């Protein structure tokens, strides 16, 4: 029997459109905040990791690329990627990079630092992205967009690489949002006992 598709089975399209829109206009990066807050709110007020299990368009996109398009080697995920120390360490590293992005945005807001029209890939490689900034807004608004798009693009690249090398949803094993929502759910259930 064929499974009936639900509306949320197509959220991978939203993830793909997000990446494409940010390529043409960096201010669309602000839409990524939905991908940041919705999982956290669902974990806080829902019963389980509903976002990761049903609504994560990025996980769906990796699954389609790896399974349907057969871009994945479909190899087992290394133990270290599944280890708590790695997941929590990666979450910590990711949060430090996120806080650094917020701090840079603050410096631009206070006019202590000038706007940098770059997207930083893998927290190292600075890619000029000035063609995608073709409207006039406050510099800090654009700075946040460049920083947030950098975070989203970097995590997508990491997900694609692990999808190709291992199983399609390998990113989901060490995804910082998944780790955060899991921590929220554990804390919530501990308080309910």
Low-confidence stretches: none
- Measured as a percent range, the helix fraction is 55-70%
Beta content comes to under 5%
Number of domains: 1
Strand order of the largest sheet: 1-2
Structural class estimated from helices and strands: mainly alpha
Q: Kindly, what is the distance between the CA atoms of the first and last residues, rounded to a whole number of angstroms?
A: 40 Å
What can you tell me about this protein's structure?
The protein has helices at 11-24, 33-45, 50-55, 57-68, 79-82, 84-109, 139-165, 170-174, 176-192, and strands at residues 118-121, 125-128. It is mainly alpha-helical and 193 residues long. It has one domain (7-192). A two-stranded antiparallel ribbon has the order 1-2. A hairpin with a 3-residue loop joins strand 1 and strand 2 (125-128). It is globular.
Search tags:
single chain, mainly alpha, 9 helices, 2 strands, 4% strand, globular
Helix/strand layout:
Blueprint: H1 11-24, H2 33-45, H3 50-55, H4 57-68, H5 79-82, H6 84-109, E1 118-121, E2 125-128, H7 139-165, H8 170-174, H9 176-192
Helix pairs in contact: 1-4, 2-9, 4-7, 6-7, 6-9
């Amino acid at each position: 029997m064929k499974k009936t598709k639900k509306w949320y089975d197509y959220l991978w399209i939203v993830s793909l459109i997000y990446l494409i829109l940010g390529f043409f206009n960096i201010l669309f990066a602000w839409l990524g905040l939905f991908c940041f807050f919705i999982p956290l709110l669902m974990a806080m007020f829902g019963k389980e990791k509903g976002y990761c299990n049903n609504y994560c368009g990025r996980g769906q996109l990796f699954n389609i690329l790896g399974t349907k398009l057969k871009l994945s080697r479909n190899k087992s995920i290394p133990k270290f990627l599944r280890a708590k120390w790695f997941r929590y360490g990666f979450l910590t590293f990711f949060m430090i990079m996120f806080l650094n992005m917020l701090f840079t945005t603050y410096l631009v807001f206070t006019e202590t630092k000038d706007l940098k029209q770059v997207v930083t890939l893998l927290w190292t490689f600075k890619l000029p992205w000035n063609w995608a900034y073709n409207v006039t807004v406050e510099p800090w608004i654009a700075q946040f967009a460049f920083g947030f798009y950098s975070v989203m693009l970097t995590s997508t690249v990491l997900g694609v690489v692990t999808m190709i090398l291992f199983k399609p949803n390998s990113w989901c094993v060490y995804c910082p949002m998944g780790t955060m929502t899991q921590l929220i759910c554990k804390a919530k259930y501990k308080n309910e006992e």
